[in-house]
Amino acid sequence: MRWGYGLAWIGVLIGLLVAGVASAASLDDVRLSDADDRTRVVFDLDRVPEHRVFSLPDPHRVVIDFEGVELNAADLPRGGVLQEIRTGRQEDGGLRVVLDVSREVEARSFVIGGEDGGQRLVVDLGGQQGGRRQAVRSASEREARDVIVAIDAGHGGVDPGAIGPEGTFEKDVALSVARKLYDLMTEAPGLKPLLVREGDYYMNLRDRTRVAREGNADIFLSIHADGAENPNVKGASVYALSVDGATSEQARVLARRENAADFIGGVSLEDKDDTVASVLVDLSRGHTIEASLEMGEHLLPKLDRHADLLRNRVDQAGFAVLKSLDMPSLLIELGFLTNPEEERRLNTLSYQRDLAEGIVAGVREYAERNILPELRMADAGQNGQREHEVQRGENLSVIAQQYQVSTERLREVNDLSGDGIRAGSTLIIP
User: Fold this and answer.
1) Is the pLDDT of residue 241 over 90?
2) Same-domain pairing of 113 and 30
């Protein structure tokens, strides 16, 4: 009898072990790209489990600790600042991935993908000793134009949005904070604000994105205040577009509520005239989502200085107001109006300004690192001689494709007899 029980317990243990293995996420591929002063490492998984990313000195390395991951990637690449990828199992069974880097770097990570399909963990290894290097410079040192930020105050007019227990309308809070963002960005070097909704009136979602595109916006921010059935839920949150599904139940519910706003004004999102345009936007949406998530990662810690955060990550969902945009775009929930404490704070002008200052700081940091260098490069092409500092791993063909010139022309302008170029040297771009 005891022997039978023993067999039963062994069967249970084996079943638990099998279940544990079956539930492990699969790391199927590791990819790498290197551009300017950033090396990007992309981990392709069927889903991204709990993980931690941190840096260690002497020697410099970046460590990613995964819980419940099976390594199935055949090749582990190297390039840029990444010298080698090492892996190993920890005592608790977790997978440790070590990125050996050639110098001290700033490591930033974010997740792309939805619940129903594969996901990617993106780890950017960036930063330069002695400050950020501009890969392209203008000989005339002419200042580039400012980064145009479209600020969209959610809801409006017949659509009040969420309503607090004391009767506060989301549309009013969103517009008040949007106006403070406008004022702060007007004073911020390098930023030029564009207010999408200037008063208390209804705008459908397509008109909001149309205003941003016609204003040549580089960034789009949709400002909201959340609502929930549970009055105890509180905290600010940041969302980006997802084409694969929502990253949380809260994101799914929020997207459904925000997308339904278009029908309050009797306007359907089904617009045949935009079909071709939406297909073209889809071609660049992958890059746009990555850029939006990266901007959100800059914004979250700045917002955290002034507000409680619902989650310490950028969530994703299918927001209609973000779907027609081919620019970095975020939907920002300032807090929950249905929480009495947060309703009171969101009605306070000083708190609204604190939130606006946090958002501006994050947007400006992102713009300075990612958009302004591109604008300076374009400006240099129109107004002065361009130069490119050769990075490790680059060759003449890659640089020629980047600037859409021929390799023959590059050789001629730079007096090169062959294709050999040295990292750290400077090329003139015709």
Assistant:
1) no
2) yes
